[in-house]
Here is the input.
Amino acid sequence: GQLRQLSKQMEMQQMQAVFNALAKEHHDEIMQMRRERNRAGLQELQEKLAAEAEAQVKAQGIEYKVGRFPYTASGKATAAGERDGHVKLIFDSEEKLLGAHFVGHNVTEMIGEPTLAKVLGVNAHRIARTIHAHPSMHEAVMEAAEDALGCAIHM
Here is the structure.
């Protein structure tokens, strides 16, 4: 908590120092480099966590299903120019959500739905049949649930 907050504060101070040293006209370039660096590091971490979580379920001998939806199949991701990424949902044999993994654009804004679904014990059918805004990145959650059920139509 506090260490992470301090780390972010230090990063912002470092960026401000670079910004001051290089002058205002380079601000956009600096911010683009920062976004690219953060995106690459976060994506690598998310992919590692996703692989570990599925491996844990498998190692525990839990029967499970996986639903995936690649951003390359998303109209919203295509329109945003953010086609790198995917949503992956892991369900148990009763189709209750065990875990969710997001890699790519807007993932921090999308994690709320599977978090609530897991807490409430929502199954894949309920996620798949919940109305999702269109076009939106959130549709990928619905699509991944449909994939786990074997009824995905947009891939």
About this structure: Residues 17 and 23 are 10 Å apart (CA to CA). The mean pLDDT is 80. Helices lie at 2-22, 27-59, 75-80, 107-110, 112-120, 124-129, 139-149.
